[in-house]
What does this fold into?
Amino acid sequence: MAEDKRDQEPLADAADGLTTAGQQQELDQEETAQSAESADVETADTELTVEAQIEQLEEELGQARDQALRAQAEAQNAQRRADQDIEKARKFALERFCSELLPVVDNLERALEAIDGDDPALSSIAEGVDLTLKSFVGALGKFQIEQLDPAGEPFDPQLHQAMSMIENPDAEPNTVLAVMQKGYTLNSRLVRPAMVMVSKAPAAE
It folds into this structure.
């Protein structure tokens, strides 16, 4: 009986060893599965982090593009305004100089009107003044300085200054009857309005 017990002890030890090995294998498999799950979770978290970074970078890129477009538009507007200012300065640089020359033209016109055309002794003077006046006006025209002589034209408050209103049944109301002083424009901008007399309808009896 003692021998049978001794024979059974190694078998029991072997069985215990097999059991322990099987349990260890199961533990190893569980640890491997847990490690795989942890790795999957980490991979998913990493993918989510990368996607979030990509979205953030795309949003920042869009904002940078918008800022660049705004800056470009502002630069173009500033350049356009500068070009317009330069063009205006170039076109109207002579405005003050023109204003100083207009009284000279007025005096030549008055001198020509004051000369008695019936006097032969003054005819040569009148001819000289007339040629000087035409030359002067022609020189002004080369620099886009134009006369306003609206006799017989409708009254325009943007170009004319009414000095008086006269009843005239032979003319349409608000018609320029006489020009007391001619007006002038520089590149279509008014430098001096024409001073005029304007017709009005006769008062009812």
